[in-house]
Each structure stands twice: as structure tokens, then as C-alpha cells.
Amino acid sequence: MKNFIIRRLFLAIFIAFFGAMIIYTTVRSLPASYVDQIARQRASNPLSTKSYQEWLEELNSVYHLDVGIIPGYFGWLSNAVRGDFGESWHYGIPVTEKFNQVVWYSFIINIITFGVQLVISIPLGILAARKQYSRTDYAITVFALAGISLPTFFLATILKYVFSIRLGWFDLYGLTGRFHTSMTDFQQILDIGYHMILPVITLMMLSIGGLMRYTRTNMLEVLNSDYIRTARAKGLSEKVVINKHAFRNTLIPLVSYMSYLIPSMFGGAQITETLYQIPGIGYISYTAMIRGDIPFAMFYTTFLIVLTQVSLIIADIMYAIVDPRVRVN
Q1: How far apart are CA 97 and CA 320, in angstroms?
Q2: 94 - beta bridge partners?
Q3: Between vectors from CA 189 to CA 163 and to CA 310, what angle results, nearest 5°?
Q4: What is the mean pLDDT of residues 51-78?
Q5: What is the mean pLDDT of the chain?
Q6: Phi-psi region of 14 (alpha: psi -120 to 50; beta: other; left: phi over 0)
Q7: Distances (CA, A) of 257 to 212, 252, 315
Q8: What is the CATH number of domain 98-328?
Q9: First-last CA distance in the chain
Q10: Rounded mean pLDDT of 267-286?
Q11: What percentage of the chain carries pLDDT values higher than 90?
């Protein structure tokens, strides 16, 4: 198992290396020169002592744009591995510093969403499989398909219209209320949690349907297996058959599916955070990208690549936990 994890780590580094290279090449190939725009803005500042050409040469040197793509990428990579992704053009502070300020909001939202999703999706998927073609199965299937089909902006708009405009239960935007600064520490935590309710519901409803359908499909396949019929023929209770025999084998494909949930939630949270103006990594990255903040865009896309590889490594380890045959092989 140790050798396997080491091999997977080397493979993950290899994929992340070339993935970041593709992103860097794409950014360098854009027709618009954002460096040129930044140089003009800084040169036009009355407090600036440098000309446009001096700013342009300095920025090209800092971001390795005065050399070819391959040497420039290795220059960027040598800084990135040391945690130096440059200074954000839009926010005016180091990229990693801005990331550390906002990532915890996204982390909390996604972890809560992931936990609630598991608690709801898997039991409902198993229930739908046990009661195949019943009213319960049809109701769960309709609910799952609705969650899969609804666009993020449409669902968020409906939720805000109902719970914010019509009922007035939640604020339309933001992470804190107007009296947040005058609250105690505990009240501030409750205030942030209160404002996270609608974003969490939005993310949960959009992601719950896929896992529910996946659980149902795999559970149906397992329940039709010969060893399940044998277990029932032995007189085992339905609870034992489902929980001890069927569900454990259903976990194997579920682990594969769930390995993509974490990176997909951080990517999908960009839309949700933007709609609710939650200052997480998704909303901050979106704002930086539309302003032409190349250093932050490079960092965010590289972050998603690394997060995907970490999720896949965790999934491979989970395979060995849920399936002894993987440990033997």
C-alpha cells in the first residue's frame, strides 16, 4: 500500500505539472495583453515615477513574459513551488495572502454541503432501490432529476425570491448583517452561519440528485446479484442483507463518484458564491478573472488541478478500505 501511494503521488505531480503548463500556455497565448493595461494604469498614476515603457519592462520581467513560453513557465513554476504566485493585480496584495483570507468561507460551505449531501443522498438512493417502481421510488427519482436539471442561477434566484423577498427570512446578498461589527464573537459566528443557509441549500440541491441516482443504480445492480439472493435464502433479515452485504459493495463505485465531488463543488461554488456575493475563493476568483488578474487566475486554476489530484489519491486509499481485494492486489 505504501508503494502504491508513492506511485500515485508521483503520478499526481506529473499530471499537475503538465496541467499547469497547459494553463500557462493558454494564458500566454491570449490576444489581449493585460500586462500592457496594468502598465498603462500604473504609468498614468500621478504618484508614479516610472514611464509606461519602464512599467511594461518591469512587469514582463517579474512575470517572465520577456522570454519564451517554456522558460517563462519554468520561471513561474520555480516561484510557485515556493508559494510565491505573485501579487494580485486586482486586490493589490500577494495572491496567497488573499487566498488565505477567503478560502475558509468556501471550505466551510462545501464541507457542510458535502456532509448533508451524504446524509440525504445515500439513504434515499438505497430506499429508492429497495422500493423499485413504487411511489417512493418515483418521488425520489423526480426530486433527484429536478436537482440535476435546475441551473444554479435559476435555483438561487427562486430561493432568494421566496425566502428573501417574499418571506424576508434571509438577506439577498452578503455574508454578514448590518450589525455584525457590534456583535459578540459568538453572535458573529451565528450571523455568518445564518447567511450561509441559502448558499448551502443551493449547492446541496444541485449536487444531491446525482449522488442519489448513482446510489440507486448501483444498489439495484448489487441487489440483483446471486450472493444477495443467497443471503436472503439463508434467512437473514432485510436489514442485515442491505447494510452488511449490499451496501458495502455499493461503496466501491460510490467512492469513485465522490472523489470528484470536492473539486467540482469548489468549481461550482464559484457561481453560487457570486450569486450570493459570499467572499469565498469562488467569488474572489471570478472577480479577479473578469478584471484580468492573471496571477490570481493562474493560482486558482492550479489550485483546482491540485485539489482534483488530492481527491483522487484519497479515493484510491478509500478503495483499499472498503474492498479488501484492492489491498491484496
Answers
A1: 37
A2: 87
A3: 90
A4: 81
A5: 82
A6: alpha
A7: 11, 9, 9
A8: 1.10.3720.10
A9: 9
A10: 82
A11: 1
CB 128 within 8 A of CB 223: no
Using pLDDT thresholds of 50, 70 and 90, give the confidence band for residue 215.
confident
Burial class (CB within 10 angstroms; exposed 0-12, middle 13-18, buried 19+) of 188: middle
Residue 310's Cβ-count burial label (10 Å; 0-12, 13-18, 19+) is middle
DSSP assignments along 45-61, one per residue: STT--S-HHHHHHHHHH
Q: Where are the domains positioned within the chain?
A: 2-80, 98-328
- Phi, psi dihedral angles at 87 (to 5 degrees): -100, 135
Which residue reads 427570512 in cell numbers?
Answer: 169
**Residue 87 one-letter amino acid:** E
What length is written for the chain?
Answer: 329
Cell numbers found for residue 151 = 441551473
Contacts of 6 (CB under 8 A, 6+ apart): none
Confirm if 224 and 210 have CB atoms less than 8 A apart.
no
**Complete DSSP assignment for 17-82:** HHHHHHHHHHHHT-SS-HHHHHHHHHHTSTT--S-HHHHHHHHHHHTTTTS-HHHHHHHHHHHHTT
The Cα–Cα gap between 258 and 168 comes to 35
Cβ atoms 278, 175 nearer than 8 A: yes
- The residue whose grid cell reads 517579474 is 62
CB-CB neighbours of 319 under 10 Å = 17
Please classify residue 6 by burial: count the beta carbons closer than 10 Å to its beta carbon, then call 0-12 exposed, 13-18 middle and 19+ buried.
exposed
Q: Between the ranges 35-44, 154-163, 270-279, 319-328, where is the mean pLDDT highest?
A: 154-163
